[in-house]
Amino acid sequence: MKASEIGEFGLIDLLAKIAGTPTNKELLIGIGDDAAAWQSDAPTQLASVDSFIQDVHFSPDIAPWEDVGWKTMAASLSDIAAMGGVPRYALVSLALPGDTEVDDVTALYRGMTRLGQEFETAIIGGNISSAPVVIISITVLGSSRGKSILTRSTARPGEQIAVSGRLGTGAAGLKMLTGKLQFDPEAAHVLRDAFLHPYPRISEGQLLVSYGVKTAIDISDGLISDLKQICKQSQVSARIEIDRLPVEPTVKANFGEKALELALSGGEDYELLFTASTDIIEEIKRAAPCPVTVIGEIIADKKKGVTLVDSEGKPFNPGGAGWEHFITR
Amino acid sequence: MKASEIGEFGLIDLLAKIAGTPTNKELLIGIGDDAAAWQSDAPTQLASVDSFIQDVHFSPDIAPWEDVGWKTMAASLSDIAAMGGVPRYALVSLALPGDTEVDDVTALYRGMTRLGQEFETAIIGGNISSAPVVIISITVLGSSRGKSILTRSTARPGEQIAVSGRLGTGAAGLKMLTGKLQFDPEAAHVLRDAFLHPYPRISEGQLLVSYGVKTAIDISDGLISDLKQICKQSQVSARIEIDRLPVEPTVKANFGEKALELALSGGEDYELLFTASTDIIEEIKRAAPCPVTVIGEIIADKKKGVTLVDSEGKPFNPGGAGWEHFITR
To answer: Which stretches of chain A are assigned E, i.e. beta strand?
Structure first.
């Protein structure tokens, strides 16, 4: 059946059933009213919006709709992870052509709901309208666990720069899927999963806050590009030692020299980059459920931005940069 | 200059300047971080998202970009008005073709900011991406003033149904602009202004709460369609006396018999429909800064939905229904 046959309200009823009715006492009004309403006694409220456009951010040719749902919700929750916050609720704004299959829309919503459930984040509102292509806009509403949050403007010279997880897998997965590259089944599975089913670093973000970290960002736009945001807002510069980057071995094995570029500017890695003292990072390494790797340090220079150096300290100049919309690379 | 020349981050910097930096102490993090962050000790948090698609919800051929900005922000705030809430912040997600003029985007943002300022609602975040047409998605974050909010599920049999303001002007304005209809200058001004520069009924929504009203909705999708939502969620029916509808005289004078249909199902009226006892409505009439008119009553029937009757109590059957996306009327 097509979306145009079931209609906006029919579709909303169907999607509301998939989203389910959250049972937490704090939620006062979910899907179906003019606005969602909830109670919160958290010190700090958080909200972030991300939009995903068909053939720009995702393509049904590459990823089934349920995977698109998972991925878009994961990317949205990642922003709350980068604040060290607790995601609570999501509003999903869908725009789609009238001839979209209802089964595709329900699959999309199932994917979002599945990932949301893993992080106790319920879809409590949104809207549906018609458009020439599918556009998904997800607002995540969250809160701080304690009084502190992670920002982009608090990095200080002398702090070490660290990242969670392994790098390059998301972008490598995208390259594999779009280029129809053939790898051995195990590698293909790792890369496909990294691109389609990322897990936002929610608990890791909260862990950073609990150890006194002040500064973090998620590096889904590319490590260099996102680190530049920290430099700009903290009025500092950063030096990255490329040999210390935790590039995923599967990416190295299958992409050779290209692996470094994927890790530095490929984007699609839903990892956290943060800055802190050596001592704090050592403690976090012991406590974190994922690898944590120091990759460089913050330096006192307002203008240099991000500098890459090799193992001998010599400047290293890669091609590419973080994904920026509109400017063709 | 085109959006593709200035780039995503250049555009964000430009738009952040237009939005300005709110000075309220509760705002912790505005535009430029992974998420916005603020403090709130309100009993209830509110959030709502609305999306507006070029050539579906707006057209640059009909309305200048600054007007589109005003209108989309007004429509978004209207959802908070319908909850009786206080809007606080907005997140704006913009998707646009790379060849969009930067001047058009800044005009759009100026319009949003101007309307937002009238209601002390600052844009504190969002994102920008590329898309085949312009898509504007606005999340409004608000809170309740006291403990109560207005919902759609609390209408009770015997309550009167009332609306704020005059009806039919928004839809009439749209018809005038799309059909290039010629009216006398005064009428043209009224209709154009109603369509392009609606004011959300923020203070009126809060007034309803303060007088003990429990049930309201905004009727921007059309009076009948939106009243049906109240009937469905409250499990009641509604009877509207068409002769009591406060159709705007300018609409009656220029659209003749069509005026009633515009008022009933044309949509685009950012008015509040609410239910309450006769006594409460009389008090609200005296206190409200706008006309308040009783147009019918809630009846104890789960299935009848919305019935229209004429002055003699006879059933009246209009053409059309509230705007529903996908289903062609």
So the answer is: 27-29, 36-38, 45-53, 86-96, 122-130, 135-143, 160-164, 215-218, 237-241, 272-276, 292-299, 306-309
- CA A209/CA A274 separation, integer angstroms: 11
Identify the band that residue B318 occupies on the pLDDT scale cut at 50, 70 and 90. low
**Residue A42 contacts B, CB cutoff 8 Å:** no
Give per-residue pLDDT as tens, B249-296.
999 999 998 999 999 999 999 999 999 999 999 999 999 999 999 999
What is the CA angle B154-B307-B160, rounded to 5?
A: 40
B8, B28, B34: best mutation site toward chain A, by most A Cβ within 10 Å? B34
Residues paired with B187 in a beta bridge: none
CATH number at residue A195: 3.90.650.10
Q: In this structure, are A231 and A176 located in the same domain?
A: yes
B83 in contact with chain A, both atoms CB, cutoff 8 A: yes
- Nearest-by-Cβ selection for B324 from A9, A56, A217: A9
Nearest to B325 among A82, A91, A128 (CB): A128
Whole-prediction pTM: 0.94
In the DSSP assignment, the letter for residue B58 is B
Whether the CB of A135 is below 8 Å from some CB of chain B: the reply is yes
Same domain? For A37 and A123 the reply is: yes
Asked if B85 has any chain A CB less than 8 Å from its own CB, the reply is: yes
- Judge if B165 and B86 occupy the same domain: no
| A294 in contact with B, Cβ within 8 Å | no
- A8 and A49 together in one domain: yes
Instruction: Give residue A80's domain range.
Output: 3-143
Q: Is the pLDDT score of A329 beyond 80?
A: no
Q: Which residue has the higher pLDDT, A21 or A247?
A: A247
φ/ψ of residue B254, rounded to 5: -105, -15
Considering the domain boundaries, does residue A216 fall inside one? yes
Tell me the C-alpha distance between A90 and A125, whole Å.
7
Same domain, B75 and B171: no
Per-residue pLDDT tens digits for B171-211: 999 999 999 999 999 999 999 999 999 999 999 999 999 99
| A138, part of any domain | yes
Contacts A–B by Cβ distance under 8 A: 229
Residue ranges of E strands in A131-196: 135-143, 160-164
- Distant-in-sequence, close-in-space partners of A282: CB < 8 Å, separation ≥ 6: none
Mean local confidence (pLDDT), B74-91: 97
Q: Are residues B31 and B101 in the same domain?
A: yes
B13 and B62 share a domain?
yes
Residues A113-167: tens digit of each pLDDT: 999 999 999 999 999 999 999 999 999 999 999 889 999 999 999 999 999 999 9
Judging contacts by C-beta atoms under 8 Å, the chain A residues touching residue B139 are 47, 49, 91, 139
Query: Is A152 among the domain residues?
Result: no
Structure confidence by residue, pLDDT tens digits, A153-196: 999 999 999 999 999 999 999 999 999 999 999 999 999 999 99
